[in-house]
Each structure stands twice: as C-alpha cells, then as structure tokens.
Input
Amino acid sequence: MKFREKLARFMYGRYGGDQLGIFLIILNVIVIIASWFMRQTVGYYVCLFLSAALIALYIYRAFSRKRDKRSRENAVFMKIITKIKEFFVRQFNRVRYIRKYRYRKCKNCKTFLRLPRKQGRHTVRCPKCGNTFDVNIIL
Ligand SMILES: [Zn+2]
Output
C-alpha cells in the first residue's frame, strides 16, 4: 500500500483542520517567539510547556473521531472571533464618524445604535426592540 493510501485510510473519519486549528498554530508561533525573549527565566519554561500543550491540543483535535464535538468547538470559537471583530469595527467607526455620529448600546437587547451627533439629553427608541431610553451626548 502506498503512503498516500495509508494516510487516507488513517485520516478517514477523523476531524482534520479548521479555523480553531489555525488559531492554535498561530498562538503557538507567538508563544515560541515570546520564549526567545525569556531565556534563562521561569517564563521560558512556561512558554515551552504552553507550546507543547497547544501542539498536543491541535493534534488531539485534528485526529479526533468525534467530529460533531470538534465542529461545535469551532462554532463557539468563530462566534467569539466575530464578536471581537465587531468590537474593532465599531471602534474604527467611532473614530471614522466622530463628527457625525455617536454610538450607544440598547440596554434591553444589547444592539448598538448609531445616533446623530446632537448635544444634550435625548430620548431614544431602539428600532429593534422598541425600548426607549435616555442618552446624554456631551460632545
Ligand atoms: Zn433594543
């Protein structure tokens, strides 16, 4: 049997790679680079241990036969990544539209509302859930 066939047979039914896997590899590279700056300290050994743990976790996930479970882990990871991405986009937009808009969160449904920049106290109605609340735009 050729190596490729052997590999294909070995990998059959196993989970393989996903976005969380790529993230673990990138995190591992960062940990290794960080360890270079901590030679002869406790931090160096912590980094080595962390790196080994990340590699072990990656291998465990890639060769896992519990595909549903791994897939669900990835979905949770992607949800978190999306939240982080949205946060940075929002911060970028806050600066970009600083002359025109102010951003406030609806306390009821957690939606971010883009409000026209009008100084003073206003009552705002959330278009998503209909909740009304007061906002104070100082600048
Ligand atoms: Zn709302």
